[in-house]
Write a structure and sequence with these properties.
The structure is a single chain. The protein has helices at about 20-30, 45-65, 90, and strands at about 70-85, 90-105, 110-125, 135-145, 165-175, 180-190, 190-195, 200-210, 220-235, 350, 355. Strand 10 (about 350) and strand 11 form a beta hairpin. The chain is elongated and about 130 Å long. It has four domains: about 20-235, Porin (Beta Barrel), CATH 2.40.160.20; about 245-280, no CATH class; about 280-310, no CATH class; about 325-358, no CATH class. It is mainly β.
């Protein structure tokens, strides 16, 4: 019984047609490795088995392909689930879906994966045919493929990149109650990429289809819509542009270590190891090419503010501006108030019994 059938309903006994038996024998003769998945006596209908077997066979060439940039990746999915057709749509409510998939990325754009998933649907409306209403649980073991069509566009620095777009398809067996059925699923998502693409996180939309045998009391396939969040871990996108770790911008810093692999570093003894050009080292708003002091920020105080150099003593009277009451006027050194930084135009002196005004 599929995810859509009730646990206490009688299991279906499957009788195979001669044509179906002949097709099974041919598949098992040429592909003995998948003979377990191809056995109809487990409860897998021939119609569903053809789809499942086709997906399994389509994944086999990737296992022997030349690994141009192979790496292992872990995929985790947490989502809501809802049956969208057949009697399951009414008799089961909203539920949850979770899956973990281990992918072997043969090339950056394509990989083969083994997926373990679980689907739980809550109790819905009572059956119009008198079947008892209950919740349902199904466990899936799938083998399939995953593609990232724009993987080569990843720059290594952007979070929102077309390289985060992915699609997957897989097929295998579904265990529900004491029965086994064949099934397929498909997913589409877009991940935001963090830590140079080693972590992906984003929304996803999926579809799970479980095939029912024709002689079941209610021979209606289960179709479940999946919507939630996908996470990708341990991805290695360092070779997405070149098979070898090169230097695209020619600044002497390898792409895998270059935060700006398409913009050459300006070698000026300021953060020269990150691979990014620094147009204004001291961040004073004056570009280094016209800044006379590119390593020291201009002090904006309305005194020679366009040269890019700080002026700690604007009037050059030996008194720093921070202590100079008249930073743009020189102190007159005459023994009178010589530490306030202001010129003394008028001076009062006491000479004997007289007050002299200069």
């Amino acid at each position: 019984m599929t995810i859509g059938q009730l646990r206490n309903s009688r299991p279906a006994k499957l009788e195979l047609s001669s044509d179906c038996k002949l097709r099974i024998c041919k598949w098992m003769r040429f592909f003995p490795a998948i003979s377990l998945a191809a056995k109809c006596p487990l409860g897998v209908g021939c119609g569903g088995m053809r789809w499942t077997t086709a997906l399994l066979l389509s994944s086999l060439p990737m296992l022997v392909a030349e690994p141009a940039a192979a790496d292992w990746r872990l995929h985790l999915t947490g989502a809501g689930a809802k049956a969208v057709r057949g009697y399951q749509k009414d008799e089961f409510g909203f539920g949850a879906y979770g899956a973990a998939a281990l992918e072997y990325a043969v090339i950056q754009e394509l990989g083969v994966q083994f997926e373990l998933g679980g689907t739980w649907l809550t109790q819905g409306d009572p059956s119009s045919l008198g079947y008892p209403s209950d919740w349902s649980w199904g466990t899936s073991l799938f083998l399939g493929g995953r593609t990232r069509p724009f993987a080569s566009s990843y720059s290594g620095s952007s979070v929102a990149s077309p390289a985060g777009l992915w699609a997957s398809a897989a097929g295998g067996v579904v265990f529900t109650g004491n029965l086994v059925r064949s099934g397929v699923d498909a997913g589409l998502g877009w991940d935001l990429l963090f830590n140079r693409g080693r972590l992906g996180l984003g929304p996803m939309l999926g579809y799970l289809h479980i095939f029912e045998s024709d002689d079941s009391p209610r021979p209606s396939d289960a179709s479940v819509l999946i919507f939630g969040v996908h996470m990708e871990l341990f991805a290695d996108r360092s070779s997405s542009h070149q098979a070898e770790d090169g230097d695209r911008d020619g600044d002497g810093i390898k792409n895998s270590l270059d935060a700006c692999p398409d913009s050459p570093e300006d070698i000026d003894e300021f953060q020269d190891q990150d691979g990014c050009p620094d147009a204004d080292n001291d961040r004073d708003g004056i570009a280094d090419q016209v800044d006379k002091c590119p390593m020291a920020a201009e002090d904006v105080d309305s005194y020679q503010d366009q040269d890019g150099c700080p002026d700690p003593d604007n009037d050059s009277d030996g008194i720093l501006d921070v202590e100079d009451l008249c930073p743009n006027e020189k102190e007159t050194l005459n023994g009178y108030a010589d530490h306030d930084g202001c010129p003394d135009i008028e001076q009062i002196r006491v000479v004997g019994a007289k007050i002299v005004l200069d």
